[in-house]
Amino acid sequence: MTTLDVRGLGKDYRLRDGWHSSTMRAVDDVSFTLDHGRTIALVGQSGSGKSTVAKLLLQLERPTRGEILLDGAPVARRGAGLASYRRTVQMVFQDPFASLNPYHTIGHHLARPIRLHHPRMSDADVGKRVLELLERVRLTPAENVARRRPHELSGGQRQRVAIARALAPEPGILIADEPVSMLDVSIRLGVLNLLATLQREEDLGVSTSRTTWRPPATSPTRSW
Q1: For a surface tag, which of 41, 104, 139, 224 has the fewest beta carbons within 10 Å of its beta carbon?
Q2: In 3D, which of 80, 66, 45 has the Cα closest to residue 210?
Q3: What pTM does this model have?
Q4: Domain-wise residue ranges, the chain
Q5: CATH 1.10.3720.10 assigned to 3-222
Q6: Angle in degrees, 0-180, between the axes of helices 106-117 and 123-136, rounded to the nearest 10
Q7: Is 43 helix (H, G, I), strand (E, B) or coil?
Q8: Cβ contacts of residue 131 below 8 Å, gap of 6+?
Q9: 89-112: buried (b, 16+ CB within 10 Å) or exposed (e) per residue?
Q10: pLDDT tens digit sequence for 54-90
């Protein structure tokens, strides 16, 4: 039972041009509540701040204004509290190839977060969990996929690996930053259906984003 509360979230960046500086407001006054089992979609033009919101939710960027609450508690800035938050809130990145290290096997990509968040798990249990995750995202035979490297998989398969990696710490919230925008149209529906199935089975709260090519009537960062 996980709830993510976002209140008045804003992010400014300082820009320098020689001796002069200015402020770019990337995100302004974003508020929403994401409960387990529910989905929130952030829709806006390219460059409207959707990916910045995702980075703020993942604590990859610090907000300039506002706050993020997990089950009513503010996010810790460091230590065990931040580690616990990052275990609960996981991300599926937009580009599945760029988010996977080409030098490591698929098995390594999945085993690493398992060992990081479950350090007492034995090697045998980690290996079993890797195979279970691959089967959960419909990548079979799991033993063969685990031995491959990212370049040996299709774009849709790589994104399924990215989803499996996000599920490895057993999160309650999944942030999907335009999860199918880099995929061929023919395989997008399969990945979206997989996310919907996992959400129902795992009772996940999902925040996803999508680019629209027509300017919305209101500010794109407030289009929910």
Answers
A1: 224
A2: 45
A3: 0.86
A4: 3-222
A5: no
A6: 120
A7: strand
A8: 142, 143, 146
A9: bbbbbbebeebbeeeebbbebbbe
A10: 999 999 999 999 999 999 899 888 888 888 998 999 9
* The two structure tokens encoding residue 2: 């996980």
Structure tokens at 33: 């509540």
Residue 156 structure tokens: 């849709």
Report how far apart the first and last C-alpha atoms of the chain are (Å, whole number): 23
Q: Residue 12 is encoded by which pair of tokens?
A: 């400014």
167: exposed, middle or buried (Cβ count in 10 Å: 0-12, 13-18, 19+): buried
Q: Is 17 helix (H, G, I), strand (E, B) or coil?
A: strand
Beta-carbon contacts of 102 under 8 Å, excluding residues fewer than 6 positions away, are: 149, 150, 151
Question: Which pLDDT belongs to residue 169?
Answer: 92
Strands (E), the chain: 3-17, 20-35, 39-44, 65-70, 73-74, 89-92, 173-176, 205-211
Q: What amino acid is encoded at 193 in this protein?
A: N
Give CA–CA dist 5/183, Å, rounded: 30
